[in-house]
Specification:
heterotrimer; A mainly alpha (776); B mainly alpha (111); C mainly alpha (175); A: 776 residues; mainly alpha; 3 domains; two-stranded antiparallel ribbon; B: mainly alpha; Helix Hairpins; 0% strand
Chain lengths: 776, 111, 175
């Protein structure tokens, strides 16, 4: 079947995805109040289902493209469209590309374009394509093109050419002589994200119709769900970091709105604020990272391809790249719940359960992981992932794994257990990316979306039955009453724990192997952390399972199975989490052209660093399975009859302290609250004090000083000196006059005395003068 | 006869007259002292007339130095008489207005 | 020469002594009438000196005018101003003024004495053997001189006397 005829080429028109969801948002926003619940949810559901169907088409078309990459000038044009510099090598004809395996895979990919909601792309349903290449070949990553003027590297057998993503851009704005574009970039990663986001969003839309029936703000909810989906799709389709920034912030806003959906309760508002503000803290790093990468790549373009090209070029400035990478990672830390900015995630469980499933399990929190995956050359070159040594990203990922898993033990709230589990799994993804196992991390993102969403929706189903409580102390013994939910929970739980053959096993195992082998040198610490976390994951999931479904019912409601609208999405997701792991089947299988299909189509070949994909290691696989089983047994056995270990933490002091430490969430919340209080209270007060006493005093003092100086001048100079001189001269005249006045007695005889006396004196003087003159 | 003896006599009388002018409070006494002064001047003039009469030839045409003396003295006497007349008239007026001839009371020009 | 003049000198000194003494008494007496009388003494002595100087006209004129008219005038003035007859303490200024006056007088005397001595030293003259006519001081000669050479001053003097007369009358009028 030739879909090129019946279905239009969508890859350069993927802007319709966010457009459809945005349209749905606007319609619900403006008209939702007047419509019934059914219509409102209907609009949202129709929009998102349409997007899901289209995402399947897009995925199929992408697969076709990978199998038949464009040639020569068309390739160069598409590379230029993305913002990268087209290479001359692409102008060569690729006659060798039409190898037999491509032909067979294209047949297979044709089948994959079917739009069945339950179908996976490239699953073992449908005809298996002919054997493509053996595992040995697939184990080596398709050699990638390095930076642009360099010639294209040699391909092997036609597979592994650099397939540029499909970009469609327009000029967004101009600044100076620079033009900044915007548009869509579609490659395997984007297609995978499209599929995941639309699938989970669609299931959540169906689920919410029942879960939030008769809710007080039904319309708001669906409006924000649509907006969120639109933002997330916009985010994953962005061509440049500015678009990613816009999408990032928008999903943050939607998260805030949806967590605080029942804002009448103070706790929900606080949780929403906490989520938003904690994300804000990381967003500073994100913005800095965007700016730094922009300037590092020559201050010409925000395009991802441009930045990646720069990062892969041999003369890239490693210093700038590492700073940029770390700044970007700060954003990832907050959005993807890494330690230490993970504290908002458990509190975000205050929102409705479908929201938790969609946003805080499957899609929004993986925005950070997507960022690293998309800008992987920056991280790879900056943090030198290919070299020896501990890498910051991997380290934080590993720590997050452990922190999340350990804190999941002490939760009484089922959703909080799942929240910490999410944190832990996000740590896995980040750790995978940190050690260079790109495909492993992204694949884990994919599988985690499935089973974690399923787990959350199961939790929602359980609480729906137990009168909206999530406290596990009020649950128990539900396996008899909620069979479908029970089975789905088991399946997803096993997937999470990493038991073969469920999805989680394959992805988690790839991560472990990736850290075992690394890029040439093993990351032993990460391996150990990953193994411990795997053990702990199974342990707390076992605990959660037992507390929820086993034992005796401790609550007050009458639990029963949830309606279809809730259980059908559960079933779909459970099925997916059971089988989707096979997409990256690592073994040679006689009829499998199936090997590493996921990696083949998703891992970018265009502008991608030469990461090595680790081979399947059976020892690690078996060891991790054993650990998981052991953990599960311990987790359940803790609560089994007899409960030999119960009360252990109360009796043993160090364990009690450890328990308290964990129960208080590592006192991180207290630390942040204290910091906030410090900022708000002390530092603000100090600033205020400085302002009032120092700055104001300086100003006031200047004024006072001039006034005092003026007064001094007035008193001493003006009045003291000047006036005194003036007055003094007057007074002197007067006093001298008064003095001389005494000679005016009015008495004639005194005048006469003076007259005669003066005459005598005059004569004497005259005589003397004459005498002297005559003597001389 | 020394000319100086006459001149000294005149000088002494003059000084006594000055003393009287300055020291006497009574207006009439002051006028009397003024008479003393004028008399001393007369003696001076006449003495000189005698001196030149015995000594020098005539000054001028017909009048001699000796003649000038008495003539001048005559004039002085006449003027002195006029002055005493007017002066006493003044003192009389003063007495009528103030009932006293204390010239210390005449300090209306006091500044 | 001096021997011939000896009686003149003795007469001179005697009269001079009397004159000086009288003058002193004029300015120091506490009796107004006595002061007028002592003034007479001075004036008389002056007349005698004029005779010694061979100016008979002057002597007579002095007696006639000064003593005859002026002193009488003084006495009339004393009478009309009801001056205290007999001793009165109201004639002298207070002591500081008298001291100043004395000082001035003494200074004046000293200065004049010095000047006169310095100017005339011991010049002398003798009137022995000279007649008044020879001296040119007869009445005829004086009047000749007044009415010829010194006519204008004489006329002026007449006017002055007239003015003084009228002035005195006007001033002393009782209205």
């Amino acid at each position: 079947m030739n879909f090129a005829i019946t279905i239009p080429y969508l890859l350069d028109k993927v802007w319709i995805f966010p457009a459809i969801m945005a349209g749905s948002f606007l319609i619900i926003l403006f008209f939702g109040k007047r419509l019934s619940e059914r219509l409102t949810s209907g609009i949202g559901i129709v929009a998102v289902t349409a997007c899901f169907v289209l995402s399947l088409v897009v995925a199929g078309q992408w697969i076709a493209r990978v199998d038949h990459p464009p040639t020569g000038a068309e390739m160069a044009a598409q590379e230029a469209e993305c913002g990268a510099t087209p290479s001359e090598a692409n102008a060569e004809d690729r006659a060798s590309e039409d190898a037999s395996d491509d032909g067979s895979t294209s047949v297979g990919s044709g089948d994959q374009g079917e739009s069945e909601p339950a179908a996976d792309t490239g699953s073992e349903e449908g005809s298996l394509p002919a054997v493509g290449v053996g595992p040995g070949e697939s184990a080596s990553a398709p050699p990638v093109e390095t930076a642009a003027p360099a010639a294209a590297s040699a391909e092997e057998g036609g597979e592994g050419e650099a397939v540029p993503p499909v970009c469609a851009t327009f000029t967004w704005f101009q600044s100076g002589e620079r033009e900044f574009g915007a548009g869509t970039l579609l490659d395997g990663l984007s297609a995978m994200m499209l599929f995941t986001v639309t699938l989970i969003s669609m299931l959540v839309h169906w689920y919410s119709k029942e879960y939030l029936r008769d809710d007080r703000r039904f319309t708001h909810y669906y409006a924000f769900l649509s907006l969120f989906t639109a933002s997330m799709l916009f985010y994953v389709l962005g061509t440049n970091t500015l678009q990613m920034l816009v999408g990032w912030e928008l999903v943050g806003v939607c998260s805030f709105a949806l967590i605080g959906h029942w804002w009448e309760e103070r706790a929900n508002t606080n949780a929403a604020l906490k989520a938003f503000l904690t994300n804000r803290v990381g967003d500073v790093g994100l913005i800095l990272g965007v700016i730094i990468t922009f300037y590092a790549a020559g201050a010409k373009s925000f395009d991802i391809a441009w930045i990646n090209e720069y990062a892969l070029s041999p003369n890239a400035s490693t210093g700038l790249l590492v700073v940029g990478a770390l700044c970007l990672f700060a954003g990832v830390t907050s959005k993807s719940g890494q330690f230490p900015l993970h504290t908002w995630l458990p509190d975000a469980m205050a929102g409705p359960t479908p929201v938790s499933a969609l946003i805080h399990a499957a899609t929004m929190v993986v925005a950070g992981v997507y960022l690293i995956a998309r800008l992987y050359p920056v991280f790879y070159s900056g943090l030198e992932i290919g070299s020896r040594g501990i890498h910051y990203v991997a380290l934080i990922g590993g720590i997050t794994c452990l922190v999340g898993a350990s804190l999941a033990f002490v939760q009484q709230d089922l959703k909080k257990v799942l929240a910490y589990s999410t944190i832990s799994q996000l740590g896995y993804m980040v750790m995978a990316l940190g050690v260079g196992a790109w495909t492993a991390g992204v694949f884990h993102l994919f599988t985690h979306a499935m089973f974690k969403a399923c787990l959350f929706l199961c939790a929602g189903s359980v609480s729906h039955a137990c009168h909206h409580t999530f406290d596990m102390r009020e649950m128990g013994g539900l396996h008899k009453k909620m069979k479908t939910t029970h089975i789905c929970f088991i399946v997803s739980g096993l997937a999470l724990a990493g038991i073969v053959p469920f999805a989680g096993f394959w992805s988690k195992d790839e991560i472990l192997v990736g850290s075992y082998e690394g890029q040439g040198s093993p990351y032993t610490i990460m391996l150990v952390m990953g193994l411990i976390t795997a053990f702990m994951t199974a342990c707390y999931m076992g605990r959660a399972y037992y507390l929820t479904f086993r034992g005796e019912y401790r609550g007050h409601a009458h639990p029963h199975e949830s309606p279809k609208l809730i259980t059908v999405p559960l079933g779909i997701l459970a099925t997916l989490s059971a089988f989707v792991g096979f997409l990256n089947w690592p073994f040679y299988f006689p009829s499998a052209g199936l090997v590493h299909r996921f990696e083949h189509y998703v891992q970018p070949t265009f502008l991608f660093p030469p990461v090595e994909v680790a081979k399947f290691n059976p020892y690690i696989a078996v060891f991790s399975i054993l650990l998981a089983v052991l953990g599960g047994v311990i987790g359940i056995g803790y609560f089994a009859k007899g409960r030999p270990l119960a009360g252990l933490t109360d009796r043993v002091a160090p364990l009690r302290w450890g328990y308290q430490f964990l129960e208080n969430k590592l006192y991180l919340d207290k630390l942040y609250d204290g910091l906030g209080e410090l900022m708000r209270g002390r530092i603000a007060a100090a600033m205020y004090w400085i302002n009032m006493n120092i700055i104001d005093k300086v100003v006031v003092g200047a004024g006072v000083a001039s006034r005092v100086a003026g007064g001094l001048v007035y008193r001493y100079v003006d009045q003291g000196i000047v006036d005194n001189v003036v007055n003094g001269s007057g007074a002197a005249s007067e006093s001298s006059g008064q003095f001389l006045r005494r000679s005016q007695t009015g008495k004639v005889q005194q005048y006469a005395s003076l007259l005669f006396g003066g005459a005598v004196a005059f004569v004497v003087v005259l005589l003397i003068t004459i005498r002297l003159a005559s003597n001389v | 006869m020394l000319i100086n003896q006459f001149l000294f006599l005149a000088a002494i009388l003059f000084c006594i007259g000055v003393y009287g002018v300055l020291a006497r409070k009574n207006g009439v006494m002051v006028l009397m002292s003024i008479e003393l002064i004028l008399n001393s001047v007369n003696i001076n003039l006449v003495a000189f007339a005698a001196l030149w009469g015995t000594r020098a030839p005539a000054v001028g045409t017909e009048a001699t130095a000796a003649t000038i003396g008495p003539v001048f003295a005559l004039f002085v006497i006449a003027v002195a008489a006029a002055e005493v007349g007017v002066g006493l008239a003044l003192i009389l007026m003063l007495y009528r207005n103030r009932r006293s001839i204390d010239i210390d009371d005449l300090d209306l020009m006091k500044g | 020469m001096t021997e011939e003049m000896l009686p003149v000198n003795i007469a001179f000194f005697a009269i001079a002594a009397i004159m000086v003494f009288s003058a002193i008494r004029v300015v120091t007496t506490k009796n107004v009438v006595h002061a007028a009388l002592w003034l007479v003494g001075v004036l008389a002595g002056a007349a005698a000196q004029f005779i010694l100087l061979a100016s008979e006209f002057m002597a007579v004129t002095q007696v006639l005018v000064y003593i005859g008219a002026i002193v009488v005038l003084f006495l009339f003035g004393i009478m009309l101003t009801r001056a205290e007859l007999g001793k009165s303490d109201d004639l002298d200024n207070d002591r500081p003024q008298r001291l100043v006056a004395g000082g001035v007088a003494v200074a004046l005397a000293l200065v004049m004495g010095y000047v006169l001595w310095d100017a005339f030293r011991a010049q002398s003259f003798s009137l022995v053997g000279s007649t008044t006519a020879q001296l040119g001081q007869t009445t005829g000669q004086i009047s000749d001189s007044i009415f010829s050479t010194y006519l204008v001053p004489f006329e002026a003097l007449s006017v002055l006397l007239l003015a003084a007369l009228i002035g005195a009358i006007v001033l002393a009028r009782r209205d």
